Fold each of these.
Amino acid sequence: MNSEKIVFSFFIVLALTLNFGFFMGDIDDFTHHNIYELFVAIVVNLIAMGLKLGDRTQVGAVLLSTSLVANLQLLAAAMIWAYVTQISASGLSADNASVIISLSGGALIANVISVVMLVSETLMSRR
Amino acid sequence: MSDSSLGRVSFIVLRHMRMPIVVFVCVYAICIIGMVLAPGLPDADGQTTYMSFFHAYYFLAYTATTTGFGELPTPFSNAQRVWAVVCLYTSVITWLYVVGKIISLLRNPHLQLAFAEESFIRSVARKTNDYYLVCGFGDTGSLLLRGLTDAGLSAVVIELDDERMKALDLRDYPTRVLGLCADASEPRYLIAAGIESDKCIGVLILSNNEEANLKVAVSARILRPDLKVICRSTSVENESEILGLGGDIHVVDPFRVFASYMAMLIYNPTIQTLNEWLSGAPGARLDRNICPLKGGKWILCGHGRMGSVVYQKLSKKGIDITAVDPLVETIEGISEHAVLGRANMANLKKAGLEECVGLIAGTDNDTFNLSMIQQVGRFSPSLFTIVRQNKHSNEVLFKRTTVDFILQPSLVIARMVLFMLTAPLLRQFFKHLLGLYENSPTELADLTNRLALNIGGDAPVLKTYTLNPQQAPAVCLALAQQGSVSLALAQQGSVSLADIYRAPHARDQFLNVVPMVHRRGEEVTVLPPNELLLEVGDEVLFCIKPAVKILLEANLANEHTLGYLLTGVEPARSHFFRWWQTRSG
């Protein structure tokens, strides 16, 4: 048992689960999606990215790039949410909601890749 | 070089196209002038109209190519129609003539050769990995190329024989092998094959032509004084000439190599079994010797160039051997141990077939060898038979016979050259084995057992790893961090040989590999001890079970895996955790 492994895997898996939780529901109905969950997902994703910095191996590099992708997508979703609710007059219509949710769906894929790599690397070392 | 070759291509094209182009231009000019001068239909004012040069050219463009859009831009007068008929026939025939010339030009063998050479030069220049230049693609060349490409090395081939080059195109080598059909003894083709490039790391001269080989070796040495050269040569005079060139140069005499191989098989079967197994010969196993006999009387059929070397080697080792050869002059010196005549049953019996233990069918004629083996097999099936297979194409026949061991000179030489290139340290290993065989046979048996136990199976992988940042980045990193105390990697202080082949799932176990030779500078250790402390730049030859090669390479390349192997604790992966460790620790 290795405390580093626990913390590392915890944040990577939590990033995926929160992302999935936000993504669940009808794509154009924002009442199924909680904006606080998006906020927490972004925070956890950013922390996971921070934990991945500084690994010089190839696997480390790919893990970091998946995190970068996930953050990019989630932050884009957050920015669109901020624009439609605060600046634009249209408000949170079904069109806007579907854009936000589909962006978080993209981030979900990146997080899935991240977890798959984490698990397969652990299995490879067979310890 | 590339420029002059391109110049040659354009020269050939221009010379052949000169006449068609002149004819083409003249016919077009006459037709256009005629169309412009021919009076057309009168316009609204009753004035005769004439075609402009542009419209005349336009009309001809679609008529000459038999497209035929009709009478454009206005309907023609009868005078114009008459001239149009003349234009049609002359220009269409001219077109056919020009197209025919172009096609025959493309089929010109000289032009095709020039094109092939040009594209070969360009592909060679574009090569990004190191390659060997192989001159001669015969039996030996093709076997060697198979081995080289399987080992992940790249090669460029020059071969004189057109048919052999076609064979090269049809081979399914793992990497693409570039080939040029040319005479390698002409230096310009050596340059075309990139001998002057830094990427060329060796020239392997393997053709059957003695003089050509010598010339290629000399040219290679002059063009690149530092290059590794391996040259096939059967003549003693040429050999001393080639060795006199100096530098990193080796001569492979197929007769001598093959004869010592065969002699070893008889007087030193343990080592030869190991050799066969290491080279991945099909069916070679460590747990039984190829040739289970020792001592006893042998018969050697064929006492030519190769047979005489076999005879000398074996009789020097005290093995009772009788030669059978139809030529008087070849057995002159050894007439008391020889029978004159062809190797038929009568002569073999005269040579003592009843009381002998083994027979070598070693003539340079596959038909004789095969029929001899068939006859002897019927007479005494228990006899141990070794047969020499000269032509690779006869493989099917040799496989069907009940012979105990087939030796192929081209295969033996290809293997030897391959080992010289991929595992040069192996030579030291076998030298050591020969010493062991004479002094302490039990140690040799221990080694064989160790290899059988750890690796076993057939076709092991032999690979030399150099501890440099390319092949073993993690090891270099660990060694570079010896000074800094803060990192987990450095706690051990050093990396021993055992550390790099521990099992990544449990560090007290080891991978299925055997380190065979270790080299640091000039200092060579055969079967290095596990406690040996490694340094950057060391070379280690490993014998590896194929399935674990990837794990061994991960040990060398992945700092996390190596960190675990060194300390038992996987080092922190990222900046945050390293910072955390220094805070808490």
Amino acid sequence: MTIKQESQKKLKELGEKLLNEIKSGENPYLDIPIRSLSNVNFNVEKQVLEIGDSSSKRFFFNISHIRKFVQTMEVAALAKELIEVDKHLSLRQVFYALRKTLPGTNIDVVDEQKESNDAIEDLEVIAKLTREQLHVNASKNGAAAGKIIIEDKGDRINWGKLGSGGWAIPSNTENIKFKKIDAKFIIYMEKAAMWERLNEDKVWDKMNCVIIASQGQATRGIRRLLQRLNQEHNLPIYVLTDFDPWGFYIYSVLKFGSISLAHLSDKLAIPEAKFLGLTGEDIKKYKLEKQKIKFKKVDLKRLEQLKKYDWFENKKEWQKQFKLMKEAKGKVELDALVTRGISFVSETYLPEKIKNKDWIE
Amino acid sequence: MAVTSQDIAEEMGKRMKSVSVAEFFKKNKHLLGFDNPLKAMLVVIKEAVDNSLDATEEHAYELKKKKRDFELPEIKVRIKKEEHGLVIIPKDDDIPVADLVKSGDSWYVVLFGEKIRASRVEKNEKFYNVDGKEIKLLFTSAKKPQVYVNGKKADVEERTLKYRITVMDNGPGIVEQNIPNVFGKLLYGSKFHRLRQSRGQQGIGISSTVLYAQQTTGTPAIITSKTQSKEKAVKLSLSIADQNEPIVHSKEYVEDFEYEHGTKIELVIEADYRRSGNKSVYEFIRRTSIVNPHVSFVLKEPKKRKIIFKRTSNKLPEEPKEIKPHPHGLEFGQLKDLLKITNQTTVSQFLVKELTRVSNNMAKDLLRKVNIDSGADPKKLTNNEIEKLLRALHKANLQRPPTNCLSPISEKDLRKSILSDTNAEFVAVSSRRPAVYKGIPFLVEAAIAYGGDIPKDSSQRLRYANKIPLLYDASGCATTKAIKEMNWRQYKVDNVSSSGYPVGPYIVLIHLASVWVPYTSEGKSAIANYPDIIKEMKLSVQDCARKLRMYLRAKMKEKRKQKRINLFETYLPEFAGSLSKLTGKEEEKIKEYLKKTLSEKYNANGDKRDDKEFNENEEEVDENDD
């Protein structure tokens, strides 16, 4: 059974279930696994986040459920059509596709994109299908450069020959074929500016690797791409972030998976990912004390939350970093390394860290 | 010649004289409620209607007791413009020159109450000589004539009008020799010395209106009355002398009287008239008819407006029994008066016969305690002894007074009557059991009406004492206090005014029935704030409010249910459409299934099924919506 057939079958099964309920005069409902911290478990063996068994029922005949119920159904019908005609829509386009007025009223099926986005995520967990399988794309985001040649929809692309922009990573990387891999590892960084710096220095050529960046949290497309490179081709993944709770959490999502997409950890999490970003010790080592930016309340609050997550709780090295961070009372950005020289990151920081295996896991 | 202090004292003594009751009230009109022309109109009609109601009812009770046919009360009130008055004011002077009055079809110029004839009439002009001035009236097509004073055009201003008020009833009539005293003597009456629920209490009401007419327009009252046995009605014209004695000006016997028996009073008074509003005659009659469903009223007003308030009940209310005073409510003066007028020869017999709830043994006991011989002559007790006796009576452990002296409207009649008046969507009524304040029995009835023809933007508070509406002095009234002290929001009344009244299509009615209503003043427009009375009023209104809350809740629930159904129906086609796309099943078929489920869930037993998932969160959501 192809992926397409599997998706169609699952959607049809969902429809049949509801139809049976309606025929027998029951209140039709959708069973939605809860996607919040309370229903997320950390699988110690696999070292990834997994969704738990808790679910909530969403009924049609319930005035506080009906709107979301109908939104979810609209998305399901739309996805079925997209799969049939083999076309894709972006999240924004799905929003417009759902944006119609109920006859005889001034009620719109959706008022804002968040509603259609939520409906898509709900459908993913209800039907156990990914957004990609539902033919819905996020906007593309992120760039790659380095010693890999791929094939995408029949086009052969050499990541080493794409100039200053690199390869724009699509939102769905499921069907990318890796043709030739010379790179020995991947460096993922949270900022496009740093990526451009490293690309200009041709770090990937000098160090024989691939550099990938997005903006902030890695998109699903990038996460899947990184996971495949790691799992299918045994390439180590190094994550380069700032010294602050948000940077640490970007690493956490890549490695263990995220809370809201815990049901997709199998396809997104990279338990072998290594942290190569700034550590508490680096601040002293690279004399960055003066580059600290004072934490705000919200930063400290986030730090406290991170400390208590199951997947960090028993990790000595991480708890040490949290402690140092609390003592530092401020964050230090990777960009601050420029104070040590324009190409300090490419010529000193990265080679030294990798050579000394100076990473955290 | 030296002036001694003895001379001065004698001189002062000569100037002192007693002031008659009539004279006193002449100078203190406001005490009887004649504060302003508008109120005067109401007070006159109220007093006459009170009298008619008491008379007609008592008549019916007597006939009923004798097992004879009786007519239910009918009362007719007529208000007629007697004089159209204008004041002539010259252009260069603020001081009015004279009054201009239309009497019938003719116009007169009036100075100091004297009508002046025109000295000359030319075509459409009339000339008068008044106080050395020549006044010309020019009649054009306009209703009012144009006025010239010494050739200069003058302004005319409307002035207080005179009205002829007629109130007529089908009561027993009054025997000829009693008429002068009933209408021409203050504080004369049968009601002051007895304890029974009646409208009039002191016997000042009707004679004070005669006095008011006399003072404001100089006209005597005209009383026509016919008793069953006489062939003709007697018609008297009378007024009240300063010494509080009636003066009969004329007497004749007339054949045309509308009823077989009854009484009619006609008064010409200075007053103001309003067609509608809280303090209009219309409102007074309307409110009176609400609590007197067995009475039929006819109101004839200026401009040929005739309103008939039909009776909604053909049953005469229970007759209130007369009771003797209860010792706990006695006051010194009252006890002294009773001792003086009693026919009993011993104090102990006086206590047993003239008061209620005192037994022979108890009387002897009491008298022994205060050292008064039980065989003593009641007329010969000293003030000191009366004082001691009163204190002992107040402390005595006695049964509460009997309550058959009260005549409530009854819940059934009150409801019917309010429904007929307002066409209300919902009416709650409550009739409390009798209670006692200061030894005086009383009973409270209340009603709350909601919706129907009741205006949405205001709430009406109908206050009554002994079946008579109270229109003035609301702020000082016990009923107002009772309503204000309620927590209306607790009863699902959302909109409450800052002073604590419910706002919206509500009528709140409170009726106090008592053998002695404690009014705050002689004007009888507000009930004094006795805690015992306020407490009963609150309990009664709360009783109604609880029923109202139940009704409003049910109504809200129904509204919510409808809202839910509407919401389901709105989303239903959309769901059917998407499910049809998913499964390939026809959209119409899915709609049919869903509609069937919906109607089964909501209409099986008039309410939705007791499904947990159905009810989830709905309270919360609905509260927000409202």
Amino acid sequence: MAPTAEAVLEIRDLVKHFPLTQGIVFKKQVGAVKAVDGVSFDLYRGETLGVVGESGCGKSTLAKLLMVLERPTAGSVHYKGQDIYKLRGKDFKAMRRNVQIILQDPYTSLNPRMTVADIVGEPFDIHPEVAPKGDRRRKVQELLEVVGLNPEHINRYPHQFSGGQRQRIGIARGLALRPEVIICDEPVSALDVSVQAQVINLLEGLQNEFNLSYIFIAHDLSVVRHIADRVAVMYLGSLVEIGTDQQIYETPTHPYTQALLSAVPVPNPVGRGERERILLSGDVPSPADPPSGCRFRTRCFKAADKCAREVPLLEVRPGSPHPSACHFAEIKPVVDTVDA
Amino acid sequence: MTDYRATQERDRGQAPGAVSPAPGTGGTDASAVTPGVTTYPAAIAGGEVGGRPSSLASDAWADLRRKPLFWLSASFILLMAVVAIRPQLFTGQDPYECDLLNSVKRPSSGHWFGYDIQGCDYYTRVIYGARPSISIGILVTIMSVIIALVLGALAGYYGGWVDTLVSRSADIFLGIPFLLGAIVFLNAFERRGVWVVALALTVLGWMTLARLMRSSVIQARDMDYVSAARALGASDTRILVRHILPNAVTPLIVYATVTIGIIISAEATLSFLNVGLQLPSISWGLQIQDAQFRFESDPHLLLFPSLFLSLTVLSFMVLGDVVRDAFDPKLR
Amino acid sequence: MRGGVARAVNGVSYTLNPGETLAVLGESGSGKSVTAEAIVGILDSPPGFIPKGEVRFRGDNLLALPEARRRQIRGQHVAMIFQDALSALNPVHTVGSQIGEMFRVHRGMSKADARKRAIELMDLVRIPAARARVDDYPHQFSGGMRQRIMIAMSIALDPDVLIADEPTTALDVTVQAQIMDLLAELQRERNMGLILITHDLGVVADVADKIAVMYAGRIVEEAPVHEIYANPAHPYTEGLLASIPRVDMKGQELYAIKGLPPNLMHIPSGCPFHPRCPYRRDDVCTTKVPPLYDVGPARGSACHFWEEVLDGSNR
């Protein structure tokens, strides 16, 4: 599906700081974890935007912000022209209906004391206007069928299913209200390889069928490459590079993206040991105390004085045809990732 | 509409290439934009994670059923419950029908437990003593559970100042020495019946259950299914009632069982110390108090109420213990 | 959930030569970790037990040795690192004393000497400022650094065999690359045998010399790394390799092995893979357990129709 240019979500300068406090009765703020620090991008109708990054880069917080499970410190997210953080009452509920989520852990994302009928039917309880009461059971069974589960298993409990099946139940719940946008927070990373492929196929098929837009958050770069139309790379709370899947995977311009791609092991032993690998030194700094200027400079092989002084903006640069947040952005094809 | 299994069966002869797409999977499905219901079969073929349908509760029940300790404690509790509700079933005599001539007579064939100092049939007195003891145990536990449910759920779910208020109040009450507090509180009352004693024990004993509830609500609150419900637009009430409470009450129920035992012995202690129930009430604590100075001459006066008290308390404790083990998923 | 024996591992054999890397590949529940635990002798027993089999280390059967002797071998010759370094390290002792412990127990070194060796080892696994950090506690290190500490402990006594159970699964890719690099280098320098237990086909392709693929507690395929990636001889391996997302498959449906991994309490009759297998023939596969057929030099496949599998994937 070629994405059309209509933006469904417009994310502007989104910031989320978690205060660090001391004291129990009289709390005093001593700092802040800058989990998400100025993120902007658009999500177009029918497209899949992949968000990749390592643990602690803020991608999960971003998902929570987009779902309004957390409220941002600053910034806005516009859905159909309205700021979702300013919506109240009926409008807010309508937004909820159209933006849904699929969570990572199929073991904790389903209430163990509810049957599949209750879990998948809950969206209808909350938004009764979507399905008349008598119709719900049939609707739930239909949803189960759509996600490839046996509709007769409607009265079972989550623990009677395997991880992959449980993830399908979660997907059915996310689909129930016929949303336009689904935020997938690491939807396959808890699954076995052989089951992962099944769930990815399901997500892609559903997207085609219902013209869904996905924000697909993951740390597995090859999965994102397979499913995403555009990819955003996150590091320490901000986007460092964004572009089409080809731009990011074939002509990355940010050194972090390049290092990330080169670190992914290629599932093909031919030519191993000859591939160039950019080994980053050290660990990701703490988001409570990020480096000045460019956040990546402490691990960057290109770092110069300028990087400590000036924050590089995410923009198109002479060395980068797509937005890249590096003063020295430059195309460097890294790997022919999985070309066997 | 693609039936994946059928495709694979058909193409069994010509194997899928090592790293190339499996036959029939690529092309057909990419164009599965067919209106209506498209299915993406998966797991149906593989079946479910083996075995019969079960839930935590039914697993726990299956576990309990095979434990002799469970049956032993549960049947003793049941027996004592019947004794407390209808003592007439177990003795034909009136506990207040006494004859001083029989004072402290030893156990005999017609009167297994002998007579107390007033000349009342001791068996009848001990049987009638069950009611106040057990009612106080159950009353206090029910009231504490209600307090714990409300305060624990509010503190755990909303956090912030609600939590601070509840937690600090619990701390303050926990700071009061139990016996001292009970003595001071109960001494303020002229006449002390079952309700007054139950009230005192509740006021001094709700904290542990409330704290337990709070922590298990916090645990459930952070589960992904709560996030999922919130993302669907569920209200706070719905999230609390449908998602958090059902997953948070198990430890509360289990601990409440143990609490009944603790409260029964606390009541006996208070009555023994002369600040609990008063004569002419009949209770195990009062009987033990009466008997304390006559242990050498009339040991049976101490023996029988103590025996019933210990067995009842022990049964509740044991029951709580085995139920906790059965509900602990980490032990399976 | 209860009442029954889960056959986690069933008739598994493999050999490892000095300096060689054997990758044991499998999904969760395939028995790959249990095998390793049985080798090192840290399988919790009860409830776990090993009905039969032997682990020969330089000719001695480890399973038959008395516990004391086995413990000696475990420390000195066979070492193990785990996925979760944080829980494998003791939180109340400094990392220096935990590394040094190895020298004090097995080599009878003094406290000061052990500490010195601990610093050397931390340097060796490239922990920055080792001298300053030797008295830190495990929680003060990041995930990648903790895994380095685990590695330092495991190579302290110059083991002949190192078993790494999902050593990088909990780590980010950039850190994973650092750790795998370190392991490869240490192995080369010390001529260690390395058993790498993992589910990551990428990591395996990068470092392994030979591979044993496990499914439902059995080895279903064994082969040198190049052969197995070029031309798998078992349908399960074939399915796994085909389900990796690839560039030229963009926009198309991924190959997916149908069905689910089996429950170890109810392993299917005959070939355990038959309910998910596209090559299945009901008369044979549901009744006869396939032995590990010899399918080429140093290659084995537990599939009755391995010839078809090999054949069909000629590209």
